[in-house]
Design a protein that fits this description.
Elements: E1 2-8, E2 12-19, E3 24-28, H1 34-43, E4 46-51, H2 57-60, H3 63-69, E5 74-78, E6 90-92, E7 97-100, E8 103-109, E9 118-122, E10 132-136, E11 139-140, E12 143-144, H4 152-163, E13 170-173, H5 178-188, H6 193-207, E14 215-216, H7 217-223, H8 232-239, H9 243-256
Parallel strand pairs: 3-4, 4-5, 5-6, 10-13
Antiparallel strand pairs: 1-2, 2-3, 7-8, 8-9, 9-10, 11-12, 13-14
The structure holds zinc ion and fe (iii) ion (FE).
Length: about 260
């Protein structure tokens, strides 16, 4: 399975998944249809599925136009988003699996940014390779999504599910927010030398307009403050060693950053 990354709107990414062997493609969070149609046609593939992570407009905007172009495609989303995702035809619950070509996607329920937010995880074919995680607006490179519909408890629980995946997992998040996220991260985690190194790499990538997505989950676990609610450095300073309070405090500070 090859992943093609399409930058759209201000800072969104659409991901086109391509299975060359079977000549099929799927798309994650099509904010717009045109770039997806162009990509799929240049691949000579047939679009068979839309994977929506949540109902926000910048993740579903292209659904109906793509459905028009490929009337047989399946439109996946959470069962909790019923009525909020245009054209939705499959209503997923935590743990549900979806076949795509030779790969399988597992549904992970990750409420917090929205109630019905889900992530799609494709386990690796061979353990050494690392799987692919499409996490929408839940986990970002160096950050996490805002809490629009959920509580800090829910978001910590959701991020903890993602944190349990292997370090080699590639993290395909839906926005290019990494530079701003890391600039915040160094203010709350100033003794993390790997974080400073990452900030320098990302600064130079963005200065050349290069994408910072995908990242690797191992790097996120070590440098993303929103996966480090229980690290002694952060939890002592921001939450009196209480993981939920630590997370909530950091999220509140980031909202003001
Ligand atoms: Zn969103
Ligand atoms: Fe978004």
């Amino acid at each position: 399975m090859n992943v093609h990354r399409l930058p759209v709107l201000r800072d969104n990414y659409i991901f086109v998944l391509h299975c060359p062997l079977m000549g099929i493609a799927a798309v994650v969070d099509p904010a717009e249809a045109e770039p997806v149609l162009d990509c799929v046609s240049s691949l000579g593939a047939q679009l068979v599925a839309i994977f929506n992570t949540h109902h926000h407009w910048d993740h579903i905007g292209g659904n109906l136009r793509l459905w028009q172009a490929f009337p047989n495609l399946m439109i996946y989303g959470s069962k909790q988003d019923e009525g909020r995702i245009p054209g939705q035809s499959v209503f997923l619950a935590d743990g549900d699996s979806i076949d795509f070509g030779e790969r399988v996607a597992l549904t992970i329920s990750v409420p917090g940014h929205t109630d019905g937010h889900i992530a799609y995880y494709f386990p690796p074919v061979q353990p050494v390779q690392g799987g692919e995680l499409f996490c929408g607006d839940t986990l970002f490179a160096g950050g996490c999504g805002r809490l629009f519909e959920g509580t800090p408890e829910e978001m910590v629980d959701s991020l903890d599910k993602l944190r349990r995946l292997p370090d080699e997992t590639r993290v395909w998040c839906a926005h290019e927010y990494t530079l701003n996220n890391l600039r915040f991260a160094v203010t709350v985690d100033p003794h993390n030398s790997e974080l400073y190194g990452r900030l320098r790499v990302v600064e130079s990538a963005r200065a050349r307009s290069q994408p910072t997505i995908p990242s690797h989950l191992g790097v996120e676990k070590r440098t993303n403050p929103f996966l480090r609610w229980d690290s002694p450095d952060l939890s002592c300073q921001f939450g009196g060693h209480d993981p939920i309070r630590t997370f909530a405090k950091l999220r509140g500070m980031k909202d003001q950053f």
